[in-house]
Amino acid sequence: MIITLLTDFGLQDSYAAGMKGIILGICPDARLIDISHLVPARDIRSGAFLLESVYADFPPGTIHVADFPPGTIHVAVVDPGVGTGRRAIAIKTPHYFFLGPDNGIFSWIPARECSWESRSLENSEYWRPRVSRTFHGRDIFAPVAAHLARGIPFPSLGSICSPHIAEWSRVLFREFEIEGEVVHVD
């Protein structure tokens, strides 16, 4: 099972490595791929763009038996709201899983996928025993990704919810104009 990581943690500290250690402790066979850890700090728009531009390049799932995990699991943690009441979510499509804060980072996924289901990450059985107020990437998202890779049923994560779709992700089409927002510069 492939698990990708996309964060704004940078490369100078041990944060990304901590997430990898947690994942490999639960699912030693996981193949970990770094999309980027250099998303500009707290830049949800840039993180959403990077994820949307690359997620479908990873192997999609082809097994549709019960709740066996689809292809690649994408973990995206650009989270200026960590430590607040913002929700943690998982989205399942026919081919991929997405895990991260419900802050708009997955805004383009539901529009791009033919079908999807979203769950609030409420079941602490799949988290680390002690959860830091400021490191949900390591304490919630990484262990949930590893458990999904091992085949836990998606519904066991929590209740059905609707992901937050950020206003900046919408494009307005009018008779003689198109209105949108530049979210990333390459």
Summarize the structure.
The chain is an alpha/beta fold. Helix content is 22%, strand content 19%.
Q: What is the radius of gyration computed over CA atoms, rounded to a whole number of angstroms?
A: 16 Å
Q: Which percent range fits the helix content?
A: 10-25%
Which overall shape is indicated by the principal axes computed on the Cα atoms? globular
Mean pLDDT: 92
Q: Which stretches of 5+ consecutive residues score pLDDT under 50?
A: none
Number of strands: 8
Q: Main sheet?
A: 6 strands, mixed
First-residue to last-residue Cα separation: 30 Å
With helices defined by DSSP (H or I, 4 residues minimum), what is the helix count?
4
Give the topology string: H per helix, E per strand: EHEHEEEHEHEE
Structural class, by secondary structure, is alpha/beta
* Beta-strand proportion: 15-25%
Order of strands, main sheet, comes to 2-1-3-5-4-6
Structure description:
With 186 residues, this protein is of the alpha/beta class. Helix content is 22%, strand content 19%. The protein is built from 4 helices and 8 strands. Strands 2-1-3-5-4-6 form a 6-stranded mixed β-sheet, sandwiched between helices. Helix 1 packs parallel to helix 4. The longest helix is centred in the last third of the chain and has 14 residues, at 136-149.
